[in-house]
Design goal:
Blueprint lengths: L1 H16 L8 H9 L1 H4 L25 H9 L1 H4 L5 H16 L12 H8 L6 H14 L6
Helix pairs in contact: 2-6, 6-7
Length: 145
Amino acid sequence: MLGAALAGLLVVAAPAAAAGPAGDGLARQNYIRHCAGCHRFDGGGNALGGIPSMKGAVGHFLRLPEGRAFLVQVPGTSQAPLGDAEIAELLNWILVNFSSGEIPPGFSPYSPGEVAHYRESRLDDVAGTRQRIVGKLKAMGVRIE
């Protein structure tokens, strides 16, 4: 009985302890609900499952217009049961919490209107699109996987 109670406490406490450096709020809660299952609570991803890490990487995508669009258009984002304002807030939270050092100068946070625009287009080949963007970033001298 005590073991079950302790296990329950760990399940409840784990998301709070692993959320990241920036504050709490709806964006953090949405990350836990809609992203952490694949990208993990710390944004580290799952290499075995083909889920890329966001840590120290996702901010680089903002260096290319298609990279910026990609962050909205990946199915986990574009098809999440969230409104455009919630997704904009979530993406901005992810960038600051997992990749603040890689955000390019002059960064403009995502807006609900921008999210709505990008959500109108679906990606046919998510992995291929990501690979092309990463290839362009590498050609620019960015170290990213």
